[in-house]
Amino acid sequence: MATITHEGESRNLHKGRTIFDYADELAVQVPTSCGRSGICHECIVEVTNGIQALNAKTDSESFLRDDFRLACQAQVERKDIDIGFSTLRRTPKILTQTKETRTEIDPVVTRRGNTILYDGEEVDSFRGHIYGIAIDLGTTTIVMDLIDLETGETLRTSAFENPQRFGGSDVMHRISYDGQYPGELRKAVVNALNHEIEELGHQLGFVRQEVYEIVVAGNSTMRDILFRLNVQSIGQKPYRSLIEQEQLDGKRGSTTLLAKARRLGIRANPQTRVYGLPLIGSHVGGDVAADLLSIDMPSQKEAIMLVDVGTNTEVVVGHAGRLVCASCPAGPAFEGGLITYGMPGYEGAIESVSIENGQFLFKTIGDIKPVGICGSGLIDVLAELRRSGQMTPKGVFSEKRRQLSLVPESGITLSREDASNLAQAKAANFCGQFIVMRNFGIEPLDIHKLYLAGGFANYVDVRNAVNIGFLAPVPFDRIEKVGNASIEGSRKILLSRRKRAQIESLVENIEHIELETTSDFFEIFVEGCQFKQMPTEFKKLGAQEPIGFHG
Ligand code: FES
């Protein structure tokens, strides 16, 4: 008999039963607040195989595309096909680590005796704790730090997948989805945040009313969706959020947002405020502003480069006196999307690889049987295939094979098409770093420090990343992995008014460039598609006469 499977656990199929029924049996937690009636839209699951064995989508599921279903609506109709499903709350390994540094403690929320004050205004009586939450609201992953605002201590860090996955894997798809089904993406993320706050409360013994401030660092789209803003303008030239446009029109002083949590649907204290970090420009959002605070940009005298790797990679080059930035639409390939055996950094993902004497050696997250390959593993695979002569810089496999078998016993392969998708994602990263450096008037060897942040960056083998041109050839000892710099920056903002003011003024002076408008963008992109090191002298790339750099 065919079965239904969730993370390796299976049950026999019975006609008429819903995925929610099976989730109960398999002890899989699926969120719900409507009694399984199709109204709350919280029980979204991804059907990973066998979707044809289920009933057709019901009216309540008309907002869902592809293989996403509501667990309460998806019923087994055929018993001859195996079904697999996963929830939208898988916990990735990536992103939870930060380079936590000491911060002064001077939060907006304070206590005078038994009175809690928000910016000097009475908001509540002391209930036992004064907590705040810092959130890194990523397109793929959400990280939350629960922080004691009196001691500055991080009490718990939680990381989970952004449940908006059903609206597409990158910001452009999310924007178009939000245009078609307004409010669904916001609801999904708010539900996930509420669920997490409640869970933390149970685990650590506090009530949600003791959370008085929430700081959110997100790219322009993620942030504005949460703040109930229309994000359509971010998806069309000149890719500006309504807030950025209002600032440019002189209608507001800054792109920072502040709203009551209650208005956004977040369950905390009735007086809780949500602070959205200021945007830098276009797609470069508050997450990068938080990164800059985390690496103490306001005090950097020498030229540095920040590369925050993700579905959209952001690059910032400069020093406290002048900063240039760009956003590179790398797409989801290095996060596992578009790659046959690609996957995010969950258990079972191959995270590091070497090829020795023709043998493919690897390590998986959790040291279990390999299921697929995550970003750091993919960078290693590409670099090792190049080093061992099994792939040309153009991504052609030896003997012109269409596919390489990486782990035969698990059936894990890498196809030509996978290599080509990775080449394009890498080229976006390459273009961003190259064009921003050139615009600033600097070459890789002039970079005093390269800070590598975000996503899977902490697990990346820097040497391999440089060898395939994923990272600029800055000397290895000047490359520093800073983990999830965005959550660290948000934490600082939650704890310090001075830092808040500092970042608000720093972002005002960052020059933002649109990569595609660079006249030789196409040539640079083509060069960036090759799996080889970026030149250290830019004229070798046939670049335009550069602005003020030597060589
Ligand atoms: S449980 Fe509410 S929509 Fe399925």
Short key terms for the protein model shown above:
binds FE2/S2 (inorganic) cluster, about 550 residues, 6-stranded mixed β-sheet, alpha/beta, disordered C terminus, single chain, Nucleotidyltransferase, domain 5, 25 strands, 4 domains, Ubiquitin-like (UB roll), about 25% helix
Structural commentary:
The chain is α/β, with parallel strands linked by helices and 551 residues long. It folds into four domains: 3-87, Ubiquitin-like (UB roll), CATH 3.10.20; 109-282, Domain of unknown function (DUF4445) (Nucleotidyltransferase, domain 5, 2-Layer Sandwich); 290-331 and 422-528, ATPase, nucleotide binding domain (Nucleotidyltransferase, domain 5); 336-411, no CATH class. The protein is 25% helix and 24% strand. It has 13 helices and 25 strands. It has helices at 19-25, 171-180, 184-204, 220-226, 242-248, 261-264, 286-294, 375-387, 416-440, 462-467, 485-495, 497-507, 521-528; strands at residues 3-6, 9-12, 44-49, 68-70, 83-87, 109-112, 115-118, 121-125, 131-137, 141-148, 154-161, 211-218, 257-260, 273-276, 304-308, 313-319, 322-328, 349-356, 359-364, 372-373, 403-407, 412-415, 449-453, 479-483, 510-512. The protein has a six-stranded mixed sheet. A six-stranded mixed sheet has the order 24-23-15-16-17-25, with helices on both faces. A hairpin with a 2-residue loop joins strand 1 (3-6) and strand 2. The longest helix has 25 residues, at 416-440. The model is unreliable at 545-551 (pLDDT under 50). The chain binds FE2/S2 (inorganic) cluster.
